[in-house]
Amino acid sequence: MSDIFHEVEEDVRRERLEKLWKQYGDYVIAAVAVVVVGVAGYKLWQHYEAQQIAKASVAFTAAAQMAQAGKNAEAAQAFARIVQKAPSGYAAAAKLAEADALLASGKSSDAVALYRTIAEKDKADLGDLARMRAAWATADTASRSDLQALLAPLLDPKSTWRFMAQEIIAYVDYRSGRLKAAQSEYETLAVEPEASAALHQRAAAMASLIRAGGGRDYGTVPPPKPADANAQKGNTPQ
User: Fold this and answer.
1) Residue 232: inside a domain, yes or no?
2) What is the C-alpha to C-alpha distance for residues 3 and 120, in angstroms, rounded to an integer?
3) Tens digits of residue pLDDT in 64-90
4) Which of 155, 199, 201, 146 is nearest to 176 (CA)?
5) Is 160 found in the same domain as 119?
């Protein structure tokens, strides 16, 4: 008797499944197709991304070799092309390298403009590095207030770049003749426990230079005596 009930249950279950399949089968097939297509598309995208990264790597290496060979103008153009076509990571690095190449080729205004663009768009380490490079590139020409505004995010006590940013401000004070302020700033940096050993050395050297009188005007070198008239004419005395 139990076998009969079991067969009846199987028939009922089969009938229900057939009704469900007739009602929803097309949707199930469509859903499976979407999953299959999605997986295939993802695999194709991964392959494409890998190809693009490989191409960007080769192009970046070639551009970097140009820069190392002193072909900075050509390198800047090569990096600019990478920015347009490469995946985001390589594009960001190429933009910074493009600015470096522009600076090395003598196009400082273009380089600084690009550094500033990177600094405004990238709020992470790449943007901070671009901000530092823009500051050093203009340290001999920009006003102290302009440099302070540019370096403001890096001068924050929580910034890992704060000591290097302070070094730039100390240099600007030295350059501008504010020697007491510069000496004090360099002396502080020279013993700052969280600053790097290289910065300690640079700051100590600058503080020592200022203490020894570096930066003061000691007068001018007298002009050379006029050469003998005969020598100027290229004649030799008889």
Assistant:
1) no
2) 78
3) 898 889 898 998 898 888 888 877 777
4) 146
5) no
For 204, the token pair is 């100590």
Q: Looking at the whole model, is its pTM more than 0.85?
A: no
The last residue of one of the domains, among 92, 113, 137, is 137
Residues 148, 119 contacting (CB under 8 angstroms): no
Domain that holds residue 165: 141-215
CATH number of the domain that residue 10 is part of: 1.25.40
* Residue 80: CB atoms within 10 Å: 17
